Amino acid sequence: MRLNADRDRCVGAGACASTVPAVFEQDEEEGLVRLVTDRPESALVGVVRRAVSMCPAQAIRVSSE
Amino acid sequence: MTEMAIQETAAEYPAFPMQRADPLGPPELYAELREREPISRIRMSVTGQEAWLVTRYDHYRELIRDPRVSADMYADNYPRQIPVPLELLRSVPRTIFHLDAPDHTVHRRLLTPEFTYRRIEGMRERTQQIADEYVDRLLEKGGPVDLMAELSLPMPSQAMCELLGIPPADRHIYHEWITLLIGTDTTPEQHAQAEITVVGHLEKLIAQKTEHPEDDLLSRLIARNNEEKLVSDRDVLNLARSLIAGSHETSANMITLSVLALLRNPEQLALLKADPSLDASAADEMLRYFSVSDAGTSRVVLEDIELGDVVLRKGEGVVASILAANHDPEVFTDPGRIDITRSPNNHVAFGTGIHQCIGHLVVKMQLGIVLGTLFRRIPDLRLAIDLDDVKFKNAAIRGVEALPVTW
Ligand code: HEM
Ligand code: SF4
Question: In terms of CB atoms within 10 Å, which of A33, A48, B25, B196 comes out highest?
Fold first, then answer.
């Protein structure tokens, strides 16, 4: 799984960072999404998918490579 | 002619908000509509406006994330629940709730650094302290007490005022304002007067904090805006106003309703008392079950949108019901059952899309802490009156007027 986060779309409410802090965080200046890693370990794939689906702004994209 | 004809048809549509047989559960008609006609017509009881009602979870998310809907409350057909004439409403500038992109984005970005996961987690200790102080006071006082007045209203309000930097002596001004703002029997005069008082107070506060910044959200907001001049001073005032307006009744009612629900579900309450690690998921389940801001995601359509089997036409109003979406059995197994261990619990109590509640992490943390603390420190807490005698509030935000409890 490979992740891509679009900070222009992000509305910064932190759903992703609160769900999987090991993968998503928010920077201090703008409060917008940053990836801790763009290749989450396989144990986290399920919960990452849930975070992606719950992102209100559809700011996180998943590709399979 | 048509005006009469239209009014007659509209009169046949179900009135919104709808009746409930069980005051804690959703209106029974939601389930029926979701089955039979998931996107249906309603009439707003306060204003008489016609609108669409969306009752399915998948439709809800699709619609609220669609950039072709607008949150502009001042559009003619935006479904409203306040009895204040549109002209008077329009005299107050739109707050973040009712702006569309790209204006919305500018306002939102001023707030986002204040509500990151890390920042909110940083408030956990202080939140616990505040909760403990309120429970101390309940214990000192002894039952029976009105939980709404002694905990549910003042506690989140104190937390929000501390965050913003509003001095304790002035907090009642905001309380009175919100009560009027969301009441369905507020007169236009009362509404206007309350606005003047709040705006006057915030203007003074902002002037003070511009001169003498302190370590609070409002000071940082002012400083951030003065660096880049993203919005007007009036907009900064409005952002502060939105935070107060968005947080006050919603949080208070969630605390009170959750206490009621837990008392009615002793086996769930026993789970919570025994296991503090359930505080967070209990909060989520209460937020899902009650969805107090049911019509919080009302919209008006900017371009024709196909949704399910219907076409929502440009200019029409829609209530995308949060409560109905959160009780959709396709997504939530046995939705009428309160299960504080429900997982996953992808509810939309805070909406979705660009307006998703900026305070949602604050709420989840605070509600979990308050419920856990209250019931673990006062395990014998119980209602001091019959459930039948609890008076539910006739306002846009679901709640009760008072909740006498004892122990
Ligand atoms: C139980 C508590 C709460 C519930 C159920 C709730 C619910 C909601 C909902 C449904 C929306 C979306 C409105 C829309 O899409 O049009 C929203 C937006 C908002 N909420 Fe909350 N809220 C709660 C508490 C809070 C708190 C504590 C704060 C402040 C920290 C807050 C601040 C806001 C703001 C500023 C918005 C507008 C965001 C925007 O338009 O971008 N809310 N809330
Ligand atoms: S959930 Fe989406 S909108 Fe929210 S912070 Fe993460 S990326 Fe941004």
Answer: A33
